[in-house]
Amino acid sequence: MPKEFMDEYQPLLIKGIKDTKQPTFPHRSLLLAVCAACIGGTFQYGYNVSVINAPTMFVHNFINQTWSDRYQSDISDHVLTLLWSAIVSIFTVGGLIGVTIGGTMSMMLGRKGALLANNIFAIFAALLMGLSYPTGYFELLIAGRLFCGINAGIGLCVQPLYLGEIAPTSLRGAMGTGTSIFITGGILSGQVIGLKELLGREEQWHLLLATTCVPAIMQLLILPWFPESPRYLLIDKGDDARCKKALAQLHGAAGCISEWEEIEKERNNFVGFKAKKPWELFYDPTIRWQLLTILLLNAAQQLNGINAIYFYADYLFKQAGIPSEKIPYVTIGTGACECVTALTCGLLIDRLGRKVLIAGGYTLMSICCVLITLTLTFQEANPIVPYLSMACVFAFILSFGLGPGGVTNILTAELFTQSTRPAAYIISGSLNWFSFFFIGLAFPFIVIGLQQYCFLVFLVICALVATYICLAVPETKNKTFLEIENAFQSNNHKKVNGVDGAGAILLSTSI
């Protein structure tokens, strides 16, 4: 044990607190740090995904009027559709840009520094979108949505990295679910604020889009009170003093000693080695299965059918007899449902483990795909069938939130060590955004071509991913980052004492 900690906490040690004692509940400062990181991080992603839906018709009217005033002619339907598609889809382009620079920012500015700097993009985006209506320039909406995407891309890359590095091993899963909890919270918030009773009226749509600056300002006010990632401070910067101070603030006196020893052990394994570039991961055979796993999981997160569910939700609600004007309120129910499951995932993940939740989630989604296909096919057979379809929609959302939605980002953090983790987030994030963009382009054609049978495509994807997880992915619950890497090498019949991706000898451990 480091002498500095021994001297400071000797009275606690005398009382019988062991170095290996694992916390059962997060320290208050750690919980607040997670909230401070998430409010301006993945919350922004969820918020900007959903908030654009409410003012759709109002933006159409604005573009129509602006075009008419500018060119003294009516805009064609084709051009209007093209402009609206640009406003919506440019968000994914920005996200792809953001994730490619997020890893670099996290290494240059630190995890906390990158999160704080990222708020500049959100504030600038809010300014552009807020000024679009008063100035009469719909081009500002496109630019604003681009910066929203950059902000979301950086947040999705850096925030899970920060959460995975500040959490103790025993609570890393629960803390990591802050990513999905705040994404779903952002989606729900965007749905609520977009109601006509709040900012969902025509004269206020530009203010609605400009509210993306509120979470950014909140993070700028709150996050500076919390420390940088201790792993970044010790392993990347070699700053022992600040690392110890950060651990004491985040974990308290009883929890910081074992965390220090774990981080120091990892540093000793990677002494003298720098963080890897993204392309270097593809040439490293010792992390091939980790890389394949996160590529598969991040692609499946967008291609598993969750977008189809939201597409069909309005149709199913109408079939069940819900009036069109009430559907936005029912849609809020789907957002609340996903938010509750994300919270449930956070409570269960360190008890049941990552593998059980994500494999079980994809299995349940596979079953839901079959049931949804059947209920959509026989929609007119019986008055009760539309209600069964609605139940299947909520079951699918519950299954997604409980497994893939909550666990995927955590596994990306856990399957890599300090030298490869930022590059892994760049790769996984880029694939996630590319899949998001692809499904946005291809999904309408899939629905038109296959109609209700499109869910059979998603059935195949969900079933294959569930099978791969059961066969190839080891459980990571309560394991250190080095133990997880050893588990992958052991599962693939590699020598435990082989050289890892940075050239350091891995410590042997029982799996």
Automatic annotation (TrEMBL):
Q: Which domain of life is it from?
A: Eukaryota
The cellular location(s) given in this protein's UniProt record come to: Membrane
Q: GO cellular component annotations, sorted alphabetically?
A: plasma membrane
The signal peptide annotation in the UniProt record is none
Question: What processes in GO biological process is this protein linked to?
Answer: D-glucose import; dehydroascorbic acid transport
GO MF entries: D-glucose transmembrane transporter activity
Q: Transmembrane stretches, by residue range?
A: 30-47, 82-103, 115-134, 140-162, 174-193, 205-226, 356-378, 384-411, 423-447, 453-473
UniProt keyword list: Membrane, Transmembrane, Transmembrane helix, Transport
The primary site where this protein sits is membrane
Q: Which residues form the Major facilitator superfamily (MFS) profile domain?
A: 34-477
Membrane topology recorded in Swiss-Prot or TrEMBL: Multi-pass membrane protein
Q: Which family does it belong to?
A: Belongs to the major facilitator superfamily. Sugar transporter (TC 2.A.1.1) family.
| Name this protein carries in UniProt | Solute carrier family 2 member 11b
Origin organism of this chain? Labrus bergylta (ballan wrasse)
The organism's taxonomic lineage, starting at the top = Eukaryota, Metazoa, Chordata, Craniata, Vertebrata
